[in-house]
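Obj.: predict assembly geometry.
Materials: sequence records (below).
Method: joint structure prediction, all chains together.
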Amino acid sequence: MIAEEILYSPISELSKLIKRKKLSPVKLTEEYLSRIEKISPRLNAFVTVTTELALQQARQAETEIESGLYRGPLHGIPYAAKDLFAVKGYPTTWGARPYAQQVIDEDATVIKKLREAGAILLGKAAMSEIAGGPPTATATGACRTPWDITRWSGGSSSGSGAAVAAGLCTFALGTETWGSIMTPASFCGITGLRPTFGRISRAGAMALSWTMDKVGVLARNAGDAATVFSILNGRDDADAMSVQVAFKMSPAKARENIAGLRVGFIKEDYGKWGEPDVAAAFAQAIEIFKSLGLQPEEVTLPSYPHETVATTIISAEEASAFEPLVRAGKVSGIIDPDRRGELLGAQLITAVDYLRCQRIRTQIVRDVAEMFTTHDIILGSSTLQCAPPIDADMNSIFGGGNTIEAVENLVGLPAVSVPCGFNNKKLPIGLKIIGAPFADAKVLELAHAYQSVTQWHKKRPRI
Amino acid sequence: MDKLTRRTFGKHLLAASTLPLINLPSSAQETTNPETTVPDTIAGYRLTPEDKQLALKFLANHEKNMLPLREKELPNSLAPAFIFASPLPKREAKSEQ
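Observations (raw structure tokens):
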């Protein structure tokens, strides 16, 4: 039996053991599968466990490594994928009842890339139905944070966050259109990377909003997120919006590379929208950045109705993406009534309104680019509150504040969410480090530097 | 349009999409009026009374939120945030700075 300690080890440690043949990918996979069987039902973290595929990939990895063929740091590493990535031979449900029987007979590009890197797919992680809505809006039951199973793991990459935090996999794939990586990373006390728009191919992933969807990684720490990103990064002919930009992050030189970064931070109205403990943890994090030699200063966002612009764009694109669902008369299968209303009502958003928002988005992009001429990094709270109870009114949780979240996603900025403390209920708190477009390495290096002087990312829930 | 490079992409990071080719029913145009209405059928689907209420709630909220945006004057030169082609040639791989 493999110690729980190993199951919570980062890729950087596991890969060394696997490469030296001191850890068997088959045994590691079997241990994760057994833990998933035991723990996942309490969290609703997995939709489908790909046992047969996982064991086959693990045996192949073991044989290859035994024979001297080592593919790299993900060889023999077990992971989970949000259930909006197509995996040949298995259901891809998009978290929604109307798609419960859907099988897409092709692997998503990210699944292919991870397979070629020798990673082992343990299963498909639960998600909010068609990537949005409150905790109960999912075909597989509300997904829970392992820190308190009466509370939500966040959305829409709900299972990806819960699975990493519960030690059910080493890392997981997620996606973000607006908050779907940052939120579960924050609620589950793990590290989440949302790369610059276009850096990871979305081919084979469910489209919610073509101009705002991004693929990202949920992991134990920034170094692990960088390792996975280095495999997934790059242009893919199957995703016209993907770009080819080389990526190199140097954990060993992170402290050196962050010297002189011009850091700003967003001062949120925690009194109105947040928790005092989140405000205190953020203030404490600012002090840690100061101890790293940086001088964070308050910045103000350009004034725009960011939320309306983002909401209109997403709703209109979503209405187009899911028009076949409406046309087929299956919209009634969507659990969340508000989402049903959106899917129907957004069919009537005029092209003029949509284009107006896209034009204002152009102005936002320009102004944000201007902001990054004076600052390299912007800091903010990943969420202003900690994981809410499953039945909480989500409008009171996400009803306001965190304005930068809409901006980040409209502009496609890279960000990393890292754990930065706990509230009085022992729930994790997240801090986000946001960079200019394509400054993914800089963002990851700063996150790594932060994690080299803090221990929050090493804390584990008692399950 | 200037050739897009990573640098200009960084400044004008815009995402691509095809224009929404929506054939709006004539009644849909009424949604831009203060009194929001929803047709009986959307995309060939006949709405139930509950569907209609939910769609109306969404549209009323959308209308309310859009009002200040519609009042905002946008210069003719301001294009939507689209990129219709990859911002970088396939073979061109540049390093992060």
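Conclusions so far: DSSP finds 18 helices and 14 strands in chain A.
To do: check interface contacts against the pulldown list.
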